[in-house]
């Protein structure tokens, strides 16, 4: 049908089934016609490159990647593109075995009958032979029963007989690995043809074979197996024989494993050169050198000499010379040796002696290293009571029990003296800041907080430092005094506060800052109970009387917000005043007090004005409008909130007649023509189910139905699903006799177009799939290949007799014969036949190499683990216990080489003479270099000196603790942390020297002549003095006279500080000769003036303060404290300090002792602070809530003019409280309101919460009724 220009439907012209525009443009064809470019044609009229597709009734395009033209399917070819050949409706680049590609016809055509496979129709176009046609000749491409020279008959694969190439150089062979005749350029050995014979074999030139050399030879002469030319391992060539030792004047040369001749002056030698003599000719003696041993005559100093490394290697000496360490004859012996006159030899001292006169440890005259000479013994530590000086033990001073570096520099003292560690002196009395410790006879430092202490502990103070106070009870210095005490800054001691105080004001001991026990602090007093408008604030540090919270009209208890009644718009709830009521309550306004009242028990929240006006319900109840109910009405469901709260009754979905949640479409009964399924009401039940009009439910179809109608087993469509318990691809189920089956019966297939089971073509297939000719199983004697059953499997596959399938050969095989895919006949390019595994491999196994000419794995030279590609005699790796060098495997490395894993590598000759492990890890050096830690150096590192051991020049370690040294005994510089002094290294410099740390190395420098000891950094910074000089510790100098404030200590030659009370002193620190300005000298003591006196600088005497002062300044007649009954007042106008019987108007009494000025805002104040006003200045008003002067009153208060009680002529402004019903007012009466609280209405100056009789409310006003 199509719609014409009049918009009317008209039938299309045959054979169109559907058409557009007019009946000439078809879109769908009838019956056996096929659509092609809007035309309906028969199947044979589909154009070239297209085929008639039955499923779509269209001319569809062939698959141009595969076919040029096709039929039935896009891949069922009838002709092929250029380069491909048609065979069985398939285009192939290579035709199957037994056929070849005819480039003219483009078709795979059969080979000549003698050819199993071929490249053309001729008998000489074969590539393999048919059974009974002979062997394939790869040269002539003909099948015959003889093979050409250099080839053998390969019977490995009976169905693929070939002439295979023998190995290189072989004219005749039995197989690839067994040659029987070599050509004239090769030598025969063990079935192989070689260009040269391997090691240990001789060439027989006549017979062209390799013959084994004598077992002792590594190599031998051609045609002579007993004449060795090369030896290996521990054998050496001499007279054409390999021997373990060399005869006569010959030595074993390990460089080339031959016996080389010794030098003519050697009777015997052992290498590695001809000069390495072991025995000399005639009367010569053996001289052992660094590099060579030579024969020479004795030195003239020797009586006799013997084997050594110099011509003067003496055994005995001539005259009065002594035989030294190096076997030379000398007049003197070296350090640490003495002359033994009994045998004229230099004999070693005991190890502790540097110099000695005998071998015993008690015969030392000088000591080594850090040892010190005690009489004639060398000891590490000097005996008790002695100290080390210049490596000798000296006696300490008589006062010292023990000393260090100097006889007077004590480290322990003899009783009853005590060690002052600051100067290392022994004293009878310890200086200030220390105490005498009788347990260790030392002056121990006081605790850092003590200015002075008495012991026996460091923190038992009697004076304190800085701003600390002495706690007399504990004898400790504290920043804060304990409870009931305060710090007196005058005496620096803790003084007792007044009664009931735990802390107090230092200027007034009765003015408490905190209270004892259960008392409460109120205006500087400690009281039992707090006054009205205050509550008892109990804290960890202090109990105080604190004012109530601003929300409360009144309060009680231990907190300021424990209210009795509330202010303003706050609501009373459980003794608290809240802005908003808590959950479960609502705001209930009352005349006297607004409260939070409880909601009805069914509500968790409500809004009032009634307790039953719910907004949220209790657990398990549901909110319906404002009511809480246990079950919801019809067409509603219970909707639970989070945690089973906030539950409500909500409307069901319009498809449900009844529902039960948790959502509105969770139906329990359906309305109309809907079907019930999984709590939903549906019009269509979907796949696998149908709608039962009787039960109004969705019910299941039978198990194999995708869709069914009215009955469970009345299928209308079948399911597409996986086979249960099988791992095979998804397949469609097919309709058969009205039922659905997952599989079709044997010898049938499922037609995916008709969804019916149809029969296979049993002439071609045993079983089939998708179509009658697409086989999945074959019957004997055919095999499955490319969905077809064929008699012979193509090349690259083999017939699997078990599965009846043509299985693919392994990728490495060019052809194979089964039973396994790896059972190869020939190998592909890049693969090699391994006769061990009988497989084609990419890499040959160990001991074999790749032979490209034959595509096989050939055997390597003996001892080779791996060898060169195409060359068996050049090794790349060796077997165990052999080492690779220049392509050969040897059992050991020669001189000047080293072992690197499994190979010998040359040493770096520019650095090493011999080496180990690496080319630069030397064991001996070339020329004038020295060996140090396997490196060759021109100069040795720090801690080493140049020397020689065992004939090798090397860097020898210095003796500890030298950094640099000239020899074993003489240091030139020291390691870090030690000081250099007189060619020795010391931890501390000796007395008379100081530690110089500014130079490159730490040095001991001499002190100035005035010092007996000094500290540096200069030589004049003394620690102790010589002669009649005194040590000034501040200047670190020795002076003739001590500075002012210091006295000369004649015992210890020190300048010591006078006591702080003395300006100058003499003899001791407390023998004053002059006092500070505020103290007077009485005898030899400086004491302060008595209470009520001051020090007159002019008269230099203490004079009485003027009346009525109780105390005045130490140096001036200025009053500090008044007599009882008078108060100290600093008059800023007269600039005088007075004692008054009464404080002036603009002051207040502080601590009952002093008149202090009020704040500038106050005319009069009462304390305890200057802002606690009684009368306010200027236009300010007194706020009694804060006890301060302000510019205006707080809400609920009004300004009132009043007169001061004691001074009625003084008028001031004060904030007074409004009547409780007023928010703001002009006076205290109830009819003086200016503003009302929100719950009241103002009427004639009053704030009324209730409507009076005769009045009505309009616009928040009371108006009279008519």
From TrEMBL:
Enzyme Commission number(s) of this protein: 3.1.27.5, 3.4.21.75, 3.4.24.49
Pfam families, A to Z: Furin-like_2, GF_recep_IV
CDD domains (UniProt xref): FU
GO cellular component terms listed in the entry, alphabetical order: extracellular region
Superkingdom, natural source: Eukaryota
Localization of this protein: Secreted
GO molecular function: serine-type endopeptidase activity
InterPro entries, per database record: EGF, Furin_repeat, GF_recep_IV, Growth_fac_rcpt_cys_sf, Rspo_Fu-CRD_dom
Domain EGF-like: 11-41, 61-92, 297-330, 395-427, 859-894, 903-937, 957-986, 1057-1087, 1111-1156
Keywords of the record: Glycoprotein, Hydrolase, Secreted, Signal
Enzyme class: hydrolase
Protein's name in the database: Zinc finger lsd1 subclass family protein, putative
Organism annotation: Ichthyophthirius multifiliis
């Amino acid at each position: 049908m199509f719609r014409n220009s009049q918009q009317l439907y008209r039938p299309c012209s045959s054979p169109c089934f559907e058409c557009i525009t007019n009946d000439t443009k078809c879109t769908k064809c009838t019956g056996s016609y096929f659509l092609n470019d809007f035309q309906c044609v028969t199947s044979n009229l589909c154009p070239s490159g297209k085929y008639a597709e039955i499923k779509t009734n269209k001319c569809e395009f062939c698959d141009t990647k595969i076919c040029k033209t096709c039929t039935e399917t896009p891949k069922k070819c009838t002709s092929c593109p250029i380069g491909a050949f048609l065979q069985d409706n398939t285009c192939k680049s290579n035709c199957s075995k037994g056929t070849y590609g005819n480039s003219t016809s483009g078709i795979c055509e059969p080979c000549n009958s003698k050819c199993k496979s071929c490249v053309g129709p001729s008998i000489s176009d074969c590539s393999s032979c048919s059974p009974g046609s002979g062997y394939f000749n790869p040269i002539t491409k003909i099948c015959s029963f003889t093979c050409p020279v250099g080839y053998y008959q390969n019977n490995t694969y009976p169905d693929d007989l070939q002439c295979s190439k023998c190995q290189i150089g072989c004219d005749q062979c039995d197989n690839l690995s067994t040659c029987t005749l070599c050509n004239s350029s090769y030598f025969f050995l063990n079935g192989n043809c070689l260009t040269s014979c391997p090691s240990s074999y001789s060439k027989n030139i006549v017979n062209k074979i390799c013959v084994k050399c004598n077992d002792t030879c590594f190599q031998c002469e051609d045609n002579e197996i007993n004449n060795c030319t090369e030896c290996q391992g521990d054998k050496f060539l001499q007279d054409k024989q390999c021997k373990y030792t060399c005869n006569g004047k010959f030595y074993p040369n390990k460089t080339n494993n031959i016996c080389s001749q010794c030098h003519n002056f050697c009777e015997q030698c052992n290498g590695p050169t001809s000069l390495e003599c072991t025995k000399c000719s005639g009367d010569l003696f053996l001289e052992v050198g660094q590099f060579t041993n030579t024969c020479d005559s004795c030195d003239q100093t020797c009586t006799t000499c013997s084997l050594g490394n110099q011509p003067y290697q003496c055994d005995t000496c001539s005259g009065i010379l002594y035989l030294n360490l190096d076997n030379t004859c000398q007049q003197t012996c070296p350090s640490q040796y003495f002359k033994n006159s009994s045998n004229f030899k230099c004999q070693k001292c005991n190890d502790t002696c540097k110099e000695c006169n005998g071998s015993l440890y008690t015969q030392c005259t000088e000591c080594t290293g850090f040892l010190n000479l005690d009489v004639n013994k060398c000891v590490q530590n000097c005996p008790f009571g002695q100290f080390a000086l210049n490596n000798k033990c000296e006696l300490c001073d008589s006062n010292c029990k023990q000393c260090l570096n100097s006889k007077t520099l004590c480290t322990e003292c003899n009783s009853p003296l005590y060690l002052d560690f600051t100067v290392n002196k022994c004293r009878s009395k310890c200086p200030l800041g220390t105490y005498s410790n009788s347990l260790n006879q030392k002056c121990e430092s006081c605790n850092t907080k003590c200015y002075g202490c008495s012991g026996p502990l460091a923190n038992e103070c009697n004076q304190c430092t800085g701003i600390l106070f002495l706690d007399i009870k504990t004898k400790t210095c504290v920043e804060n005094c304990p409870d009931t005490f305060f710090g007196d800054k005058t005496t620096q001691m803790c003084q007792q506060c007044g009664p009931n105080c735990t802390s107090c004001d230092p200027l007034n001991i009765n003015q408490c800052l905190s209270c004892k026990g259960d008392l409460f602090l109120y205006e500087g007093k400690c009281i039992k109970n707090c006054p009205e408008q205050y509550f008892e604030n109990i804290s960890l540090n202090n109990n105080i009387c604190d004012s109530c919270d601003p929300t409360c009209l009144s309060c009680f208890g231990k907190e300021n917000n424990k209210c009795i009644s509330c202010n303003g718009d706050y609501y009373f709830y459980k003794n608290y005043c809240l802005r908003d009521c808590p959950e479960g309550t609502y705001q209930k306004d009352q005349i006297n007090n607004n409260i939070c009242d409880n909601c009805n028990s069914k509500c968790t929240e409500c809004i009032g004005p009634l307790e039953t006006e719910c907004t949220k319900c209790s657990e398990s109840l549901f909110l319906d409008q404002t009511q809480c109910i246990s079950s919801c009405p019809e067409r509603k469901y219970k909707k639970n909130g989070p945690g089973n709260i906030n539950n409500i009754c909500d409307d069901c979905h319009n498809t449900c007649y009844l529902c039960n949640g948790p959502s509105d479409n969770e139906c329990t009964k359906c309305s109309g023509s809907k079907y019930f399924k999984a709590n939903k009401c549906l019009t269509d039940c979907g796949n696998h189910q149908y709608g039962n009009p009787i039960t109004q439910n969705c019910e299941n179809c039978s198990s194999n139905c995708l869709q069914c109608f009215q009955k469970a087993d009345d299928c209308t469509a079948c399911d597409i699903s996986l086979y249960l318990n099988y791992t095979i691809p998804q397949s469609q189920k097919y309709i058969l006799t009205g039922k659905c089956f997952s599989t079709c019966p044997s010898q049938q297939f499922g037609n995916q177009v008709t969804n019916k089971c149809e029969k296979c073509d049993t002439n071609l297939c045993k079983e089939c799939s998708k179509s009658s000719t697409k086989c999945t199983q074959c019957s004997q004697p055919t095999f499955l290949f490319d969905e077809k059953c064929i008699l012979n499997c193509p090349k690259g596959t083999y017939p699997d007799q078990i599965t009846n399938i043509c299985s693919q050969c392994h990728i490495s095989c060019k052809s194979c014969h089964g039973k396994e895919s790896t059972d190869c006949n020939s190998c592909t390019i890049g693969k090699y036949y391994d006769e061990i595994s009988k497989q084609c491999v990419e890499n040959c196994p160990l001991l074999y190499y790749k032979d490209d000419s034959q595509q096989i794995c050939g055997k390597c030279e003996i001892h080779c683990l791996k060898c060169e590609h195409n060359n068996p005699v050049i090794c790349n790796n060796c077997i165990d216990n052999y080492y690779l060098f220049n392509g050969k495997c040897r059992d050991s490395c020669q001189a000047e080489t080293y072992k690197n894993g499994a190979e010998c590598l040359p040493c770096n000759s520019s650095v090493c003479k011999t080496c180990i492990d690496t080319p630069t890890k030397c064991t001996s050096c070339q020329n004038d270099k020295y060996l140090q830690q396997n490196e060759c150096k021109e100069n040795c590192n720090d801690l080493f000196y140049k020397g020689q051991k065992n004939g090798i020049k090397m860097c020898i370690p210095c003796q500890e603790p030298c950094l640099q040294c000239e020899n074993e005994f003489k240091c030139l510089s020291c390691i870090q942390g030690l000081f250099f002094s007189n060619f020795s290294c010391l931890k501390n410099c000796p007395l008379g020297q100081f530690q110089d740390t500014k130079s490159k190395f730490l040095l001991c420098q001499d002190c100035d002549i005035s010092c007996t000891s000094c500290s540096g950094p200069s030589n004049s910074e003394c620690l102790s003095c010589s002669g009649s000089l005194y040590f000034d510790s501040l200047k670190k100098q020795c002076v003739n006279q001590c500075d002012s404030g210091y006295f000369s200590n004649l015992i210890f030659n020190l300048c010591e500080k006078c006591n702080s009370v003395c300006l100058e002193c003499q003899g001791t620190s407390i023998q004053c000769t002059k006092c500070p300005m505020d103290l007077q000298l009485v005898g030899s003591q400086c004491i302060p003036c008595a209470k009520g006196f001051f020090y007159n600088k002019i008269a230099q005497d203490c004079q009485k303060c003027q009346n009525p002062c109780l105390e005045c300044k130490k140096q001036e007649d200025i009053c500090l404290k008044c007599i009882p009954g008078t108060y100290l007042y600093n008059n800023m106008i007269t600039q005088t300090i007075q004692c008054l019987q009464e404080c002036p108007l603009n002051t207040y009494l502080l601590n009952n002792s002093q008149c202090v000025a009020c704040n500038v805002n106050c005319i009069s104040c009462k304390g305890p602070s200057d802002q606690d006003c009684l009368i306010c200045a200027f236009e300010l008003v007194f706020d009694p809530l804060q006890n301060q002067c302000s510019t205006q009153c707080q809400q609920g208060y009004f300004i009132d003019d009043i007169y001061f009680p004691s001074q009625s002529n003084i008028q001031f402004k004060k904030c007074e409280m409004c009547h409780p019903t007023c928010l703001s007012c002009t006076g205290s009466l109830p009819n003086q309101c200016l503003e009302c609280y929100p719950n009241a209405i103002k009427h004639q100056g009053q704030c009324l919460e209730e409507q009076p009789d005769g009045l009505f409310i309009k616009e928040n006003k009371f108006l009279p009724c008519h």
